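Sequence only, no structure available. Ideas?
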Amino acid sequence: MDPISGIDPAAAPSGTGCVECLQQDGWWFHLRRCAECGHIGCCDSSPSQHASAHEQASGHPVVRSFEPGEDWFYSYPEQAMFAGPDLAPPQAHPDSQPVPGPAGRVPQNWMSLLH
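Reply:
I predicted one. C-alpha cells follow.
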C-alpha cells in the first residue's frame, strides 16, 4: 500500500485517554487518535473537542477512532471517512475503560453536555 499523507503507521498512541482532558481533570465521550503523531484527543461530541483542536494546532489532517472494535479513519480536510493501514498498537483504549471516561470524572448530566 502506498503511504497516505497524514498517516505514520509507526507512531504509537500517546496514552489511553485524551491528553488534555487528563491534564485538566476533564472527561470525554469518545477518543480519536492522530494518525500522524499518535496524539489521543476527545471527539467532537465531547465537551472540549481536543482531537479537532490538535488538528487545527498541528496541521495533522487524519484521525482514527480509538474506540474498541472501530478501525475507521477520518480526514478533516476532506470531511470524509476512509479505510487505512494498520497502526502501531494498541488500536484502542482498554476495554475496561468506561465510555464516557475516565472513571470518576464524568458528571451525572453528561448526556446534556455533549455537542
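The mean pLDDT is 95.
Hope that gets you unstuck.
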